[in-house]
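Posting for a labmate who doesn't have an account.
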Amino acid sequence: MLDLIPKKRQIRQPDIFREMENMFRYFWHDFPVWEGNEVAGTFSPDLDVSETDKAIEIRAELPGLDKKNIDISLDRNLLTVRGEKRQEKEEGDKRYHLIERSWGSFVRSIRLPAEVDEKKLEATFKDGVLKVVLPKTEESRKKVTHIAVH
């Protein structure tokens, strides 16, 4: 009985995100250093960005880096962390069967959600974790408007 009811025609819309993903996949497909899901020699640290009433805090995982290879800059509320993780090479009679550790230069930029006091910035690097604390300015703390719900 259901065979007698006309089916609605389904018009397929192009999925722009899938098309973009395919374009990037095809771009890297024949690249000479393609290995699995990543390009060999790339390194991009993971970041956590959190905010309190008084400050913005950024933590970056930078295992294997030395603090002398890290550069942090702030320009008009754009925080940039850049650095380089060098590839470790051991010469000799050792043969590698698998190399999965990433290396290379990186740049990560974060647009800050509030104005910060540039005179009170603080950065520490311990156990491979970079912590940057950016205290908010008095003006940006006052900009928050709470709206009562009735």
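Reply:
Got it, the structure tokens are right above this. The beta strands are 34-35, 38-39, 47-51, 55-61, 70-75, 78-85, 104-111, 122-126, 129-135.
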